[in-house]
Design a protein that fits this description.
- The complex is a heterotetramer, with 2 copies of chain A and 2 copies of chain B.
- By secondary structure, chain A is α+β, with helices and mostly antiparallel strands.
- Chain A is built from 4 helices and 8 strands, in the order βββαββββαβαα.
- Chain A has a 6-stranded antiparallel β-sheet.
- By secondary structure, chain B is an alpha+beta fold.
- Chain B is built from 5 helices and 6 strands, in the order αββαβαβαββα.
- Classes of the chains: A alpha+beta, B alpha+beta.
- At the C-D interface, α1, β2, α2, β3 and β4 of C face β2, β3, α1, β8 and α3 of D.
- The structure holds adenosine-5'-triphosphate (2 copies) and magnesium ion (2 copies).
- One adenosine-5'-triphosphate sits at the interface of chains A and C.
Chain lengths: ~160, ~160, ~160, ~160
C-alpha cells in the first residue's frame, strides 16, 4: 500500500482546491512561515479520524473550515480526500485504489466516505487500524512535538506501542 | 494479547538500542516498562545517554539530543512494524548541520520501505529529497502549491518570498 | 500600584501593536486584560493577526508566526522598561530565512540599548553578531569554550565537529 | 549597568572552570548539539536565584553539579559568578563592580554571595528586582519556550508584566 494523493478544498488555508500527488521515497514540503505546510499535516490527521479540535490547533472543529481573508468570504464546508494505492491488499477492502474522504459543513454536520460511499468514523478507523497511520499511530510527528513524543506521560507513550503491536 | 505486546515491546527496545548507537555514534539507550504493574497497563520510559556522558535522564539532554532520540524511537517502531508512510514536521529544526546530515542519512535508509513527507526549512534536508513541493501564499491568507526545483526551494525561504511578511 | 500597572500595561500594548506591524509588515495585534476582574488580578491575553488574515487567535498561527509574535511581545516589554541584557536561546529555529533576517534587524535596533546574547545554529544570525563565542566538547561530556571567527562558527555546526556525535 | 562576565565551575557540563567575557551589542553563542550552550542560560538563571530544579531541566537541585563522564569523577560543588559593571548605579549598591555568586555542595548546602560576602537569596532578589533580569523577568527566553511565553495561562503572563511595571 502506498500514498497516491491528498486533495483539500476549504480546509484551513486551502480556500482553492489543491492536490498533492506523492511519489515513493522522500518528499520535502517547503515554503515561507505561515503559508500552510503544517495545515497539510492537519489535513492528514483530520481525514484519518482526528476527533480533537485542539489536536488540529483549533478551539472547535469548525475552525478547520476556511475562515476568509481580507479579500475572501469564509467558505461553508471543508473537504479532504486521501487516496491510497492498495494493489498489495494491505487495507482490508476489495479495491486496488482506496479513497478516504471527510467533510464538515458550517452547520456542524460531518460526513465520512470510503470510495465515495458514506460510512461511519468507525469504518475509517477499522480500515487503517494496525497500519500505524491512524491518529493514535506513530507515523505523524507534528511541529514542535518532539518533546511531547518523549516526555508525555508513560501511559500515553504506551498507546503508541500498542498501535505497533 | 499480553504475549503479543511484550514481544513487540522487546523488539522495539532492541531496535531502539541499535538505532541510538548508530545515530549518536556510541552511547546507550533503553526502553523500560513500569515495574510491578500489569504489562497491559504499564507505562513506557525512555532512557538514553549520549556517548561519554553518564546521564541517562531525558530531562537533562539538550534540544538537539532529544530530537535525535525521538527520531531513534520513531524508527525503532518503524522497523518493528513498518507503516506505509511517515509525516515529519520540522523535526530537523533543533539540529546542527552535522546531526541534520545524520538525520537525512537515516531517512534515506528507510525510504525504500515507506514514503516520507518531510516539512523543513533546512537546505541540508531539501537537498536530499527525491521530490519537492512548495507551499506558499500568492494571495494573502490563501495557500497555493508550486512545483519547485532545489535552487528555487532555497529561494522560497529567502526574503521577498510570499508568506508571513 | 494599580495606576502603575495600568500605565505600564497600556504602554506595552502600544509598543506591541507597533512592533508587530513593523515585524510582519502589516496586520494587527493587541493585548487585553481579562474583563470584569480587578486589574491587579486580571490575566493578559495576546491577540494577533498577520497581514491579510482574519484570524486573531494564537492557536491557529504557524510555528514561525508564533515565534515572531513572541519576539514582538518581548521587545514591547523591552521598550517599556529596558533591561540591561537579554538572553535568547534558539528563538530563530522555526523561522524561514526572510523572517530570520527580520528578527536580526530588530535585534540590531535594540542592541545599542542592551546586551543581547543569542544562542543559535543559524548562519544568518551568526553573521550579524558583533562577537562570537563557541561552546564545544573537546572531551566528551565536558564543555569548553573557544573564540571563533564567523567562518569557523559555520564550521562548528558542520559534520565532524566535536559534539553529539 | 551592563554585563561584564560569567564564570562557571562544576556547574552542569562545565567541569573545568570557564569564563565568558561579554562585550556590548550582540554576542552569538554557537556550537554543536549537546555541548553546553543552554547550560549557559541555566547558569544565568541559577545565579540570579532560580529555585525550581525543573526550571533548570533537572529533577532535583543537585542535578546542577557536574555528574562526571566515562573519564571523569563527579565533582562535589557547583559555582557560578556573574559580574556586572555598575558604574551608572542602576543596582542599588555602592560598588562600581558587582559580583553575584551562588554555590551548591553535594551535601545540599547552598550559599549566595554579593562581592564575595555571604548573603541570603532575598538580598540577591532585592538587588536585581525591577531590572527585568530576575527569574520572573522577561529578559531570558529559554530554548523551545516561545510557546510557553505566548500560551502560558494569562495569570502567568501577568507576572512578566508586573516585573516591567
Ligand atoms: N480555518 C482557517 N481558515 C483560514 N486560514 C487558516 C485557518 N486555519 C488556519 N489558518 C491559517 O493558516 C496559517 C498557518 O499555517 P501553517 O501552520 O500550516 O503554516 P506553516 O507553513 O506550517 O508555517 P511555519 O513554517 O511557520 O511552521 C495561519 O496563518 C492561519 O491563520
Ligand atoms: N550536572 C551535569 N553534569 C554533567 N553534564 C550535564 C549536567 N547537566 C547537564 N549535562 C549535560 O549537558 C548537555 C546538554 O547541554 P545543553 O542543553 O546546554 O546543550 P546545547 O549546547 O544547548 O545543545 P542544543 O544545540 O542541542 O540545544 C547534556 O548532554 C547533559 O548530559
Ligand atoms: Mg508549520
Ligand atoms: Mg540548547
Amino acid at each position: 500500500m502506498h500514498l497516491k494523493k491528498l486533495a483539500c478544498a476549504g480546509f484551513k488555508s486551502f480556500a482553492d482546491p489543491l492536490e498533492f500527488v506523492f511519489d515513493t521515497g522522500m518528499t520535502a514540503i517547503v515554503g515561507p512561515n505561515g503559508c500552510g505546510k503544517s495545515n497539510v499535516v492537519d489535513a492528514f490527521r483530520w481525514v484519518l479520524g482526528e476527533r480533537s479540535a485542539k489536536g488540529l490547533r483549533g478551539k472547535e472543529m469548525l475552525d478547520v473550515i476556511f475562515k476568509g481573508t481580507s479579500k475572501r468570504q469564509p467558505l461553508s464546508r471543508a473537504e479532504v480526500t486521501l487516496t491510497f494505492d492498495n494493489s498489495d491488499g494491505t487495507l482490508p477492502i476489495d479495491f486496488t485504489e482506496v479513497e478516504v474522504t471527510r467533510r464538515l459543513y458550517r452547520s456542524g454536520e460531518s460526513e465520512y466516505l470510503i470510495n465515495r460511499k458514506k460510512c461511519r468514523l468507525k469504518d475509517v478507523l477499522a480500515l487503517v487500524a494496525g497500519t500505524g497511520i491512524g491518529t493514535e499511530g506513530y507515523s505523524i510527528l507534528e511541529q514542535g512535538s518532539v518533546d511531547v513524543f518523549l516526555h508525555s506521560n508513560p501511559a500515553e507513550r504506551r498507546a503508541v506501542f500498542e498501535e505497533a503491536a | 494479547c499480553r504475549v503479543m505486546f511484550v514481544e513487540t515491546f522487546e523488539l522495539v527496545r532492541k531496535h531502539f538500542a541499535e538505532l541510538f548507537v548508530m545515530i549518536f555514534g556510541g552511547g546507550s539507550a533503553d526502553l523500560q516498562l513500569e515495574e510491578g504493574v500489569d504489562v497491559l497497563e504499564a507505562g513506557v520510559t525512555v532512557l538514553a545517554s549520549p556517548p561519554g556522558k553518564r546521564i541517562n535522564s531525558l530531562q537533562l539532554m539538550s534540544g538537539g539530543e532529544k530530537a535525535l532520540t525521538a527520531v531513534a524511537v520513531l524508527f525503532a517502531l518503524f522497523k518493528t512494524r513498518p507503516s506505509p508512510f511517515c509525516l515529519l514536521d520540522e523535526v530537523d529544526a533543533p539540529l546542527d548541520e552535522a546531526n541534520n546530515k545524520r538525520f537525512v542519512r537515516i531517512l534515506q535508509e528507510f525510504s525504500d520501505q515507506a514514503q516520507f513527507l518531510v516539512i523543513t526549512h533546512s537546505k541540508v534536508t531539501m537537498a536530499e529529497a527525491e521530490s519537492l513541493y512548495g507551499v506558499t501564499m500568492e494571495e494573502e491568507g490563501v495557500s497555493t502549491q508550486i512545483a519547485v526545483r532545489l535552487e528555487e526551494a532555497e529561494k522560497l525561504t529567502e526574503p521577498g518570498a510570499q508568506g508571513a511578511r
